[in-house]
Amino acid sequence: MKAAADGTRHANELLKPLNLKVRSYSVLVLAAGETEPTQRELASFLSLDPSQIVALVDELETKGLVERVVDPADRRSKVITATPAGRHLVARATAATRAAEADSLAALTIDERETLRGLLRKVAFSD
Q1: What is the H or E stretch that residue 19 is in?
Q2: Phi-psi bin for 19: left (phi > 0), alpha (psi -120 to 50), beta?
Q3: Ranges assigned E (strand) in the chain
């Protein structure tokens, strides 16, 4: 838990000049992907309360980084998509989060880093 908290804190520091935090960056990355998530799907994937997602999407929308678009598969629903500005910011923010990860894992060898990433993926995506 301490490692996760330290990593998040460091990532937030590196994302601060981009006016992002880890949570808003996570929403932005998903919105920039090809899945076109709904707010409900974002909440589920990020294990956040839907009200937290609404606040994060509202913040990103106000900054012109995401938009709510009618879901072509279900017109009653809206998907969250990144704007061109949001996609551009994702690229810059990803560099910052990679730097934070490299700093956090500096004590590990390259092989140990890959093993850790693999184990974390296994834990996170084993349903």
Answers
A1: none
A2: left
A3: 66-71, 74-82
- C-alpha span between 37 and 44 (Å, rounded): 10
- Residues 104, 6 contacting (CB under 8 angstroms): yes
Q: What is the pLDDT of residues 37-77, one digit of tens each?
A: 999 999 999 999 999 999 999 999 999 999 999 988 888 88
Q: Whole-model pTM?
A: 0.85
Q: Which residue has the tokens 């998509």?
A: 81
- Rounded to whole angstroms, what are the CA distances from 124 to 40, 88, 100? 19, 27, 20
Are 39 and 53 in contact, with CB atoms under 8 Å apart?
Answer: yes
In what helix (H) or strand (E) does residue 6 lie, and over which residues does it extend?
Answer: helix 2-15
Locus of tokens 């500005």: 85
* Mean pLDDT confidence for 7-31: 92
Beta bridge partners of 74: 71
